[in-house]
Amino acid sequence: MKKAIIIGATSGIGKELAKILSNNGYKVGLTGRRKQLLEDIQTGNPQAFEILQSDITEIDTLSNKLDELVYKLGGMDLLVISSGTGDLNPILDFDIEKKTIDTNVTGFTFVADWAYQYFEKKQSGHLAGITSLAGIRGNRIAPSYNASKSYQINYLEGLRQKAGKAKHDITVTDIRPGFVATDMAKGDGQFWGATPEKAAKQIYAAIRNKKRTAYITKRWGLIAFLLKILPKRMYEKM
Predict the structure, then answer these.
(1) Nearest to 11 by CA among 131, 183, 176
(2) What is the mean pLDDT, run by run of 10 residues, along the chain of 238 residues?
(3) What's the confidence (pLDDT) of residue 193?
(4) If we measure between CA atoms, which residue out of 135, 51, 142, 58 comes closest to residue 100?
(5) What is the pLDDT of residues 207-229, one digit of tens each?
(6) What is the distance between the alpha carbons of residues 152 and 176, in angstroms, rounded to a whole number?
(7) Which of 6, 4, 5 is nearest to 196 (CA)?
(8) Distance between CA atoms of residues 165 and 57, nearest Å
(9) Contact (Cβ atoms closer than 8 angstroms) between residue 46 and residue 72
(10) pLDDT number for residue 235
(11) What are the strands of the beta sheet with 26-32, ordered from one edge?
């Protein structure tokens, strides 16, 4: 039985992905801040899940907690970083920017490094990070969110290059969702919005196929292409 850990599994994409992994032969470790929600998932299938209450920003204690979770699972073959945050911040409230940076940059980096070092020791494994289409360009009303997602995209690419140079059998997958109907989504009736269930199915397919990069849903790849080629002057006027 393969072993997986999902960082941020209390709701949304992480929760739905946990169900899919357990239905496909994985024993899954679930982490998140809200213990009751983790327990609710575990109750549905106690044999399939181990749970750990944790906050990705509490890096002083996170390593020991994750080591304990790996011990309970009996190993780790896959780690998915699904934890993230972001808010619209047109007035540049620094508390909002700091919260985003603490979670999406500092916490993300700590967990990615911890997972990579674990896989490096056994010379195999799969690290998947849920970044965002937002990481392709900056955004005037959510500057830290887009910037943090760009950081994640580039960090994962660096780890992929590192694994390739060392000739380790470590897969690094960059998952870039567009709009998904989760608590983080802002506004109603979003363009090409996907349900968490649909998004999780496509994410699982990307993990199973060991994709380097996957847009969720797939048609957001077209928007990504357009964003990349759009001239700066045009983009800055949007």
Answers:
(1) 183
(2) 96 94 96 94 92 95 96 97 94 97 98 98 97 96 97 98 97 95 55 85 98 95 93 88
(3) 72
(4) 142
(5) 999 999 999 999 999 999 999 99
(6) 10
(7) 6
(8) 30
(9) no
(10) 87
(11) 49-53, 26-32, 2-7, 78-81, 124-130, 169-177, 213-216
The two tokens of residue 132 are 């965002």
With vertex at residue 55, the alpha carbon angle to CA 35 and CA 133, rounded to the nearest 5 degrees, is 110
What was the pLDDT predicted at 131? 97
121 alpha carbon, distance to own chain's centre: 22
Which pLDDT score is estimated for 186?
47
Q: What single-letter amino acid sits at 113?
A: D
Q: Confirm whether pTM is higher than 0.85.
A: yes
- Give DSSP secondary structure letters for the chain: -EEEEEES-SSHHHHHHHHHHHHTTEEEEEEES-HHHHHHHHHH-TTTEEEEE--TT-HHHHHHHHHHHHHHHT--SEEEE--------TT--HHHHHHHHIIIIIIHHHHHHHHHHHHHHHTEEEEEEE--GGGGS--TTSHHHHHHHHHHHHHHHHHHHHHHHHT-EEEEEEEEE--B-STT--SSS-TT-B-HHHHHHHHHHHHHTT-SEEEESTTHHHHHHHHHHS-HHHHHT-
pLDDT number for residue 154: 98
Size of the chain, expressed as the number of residues it contains: 238
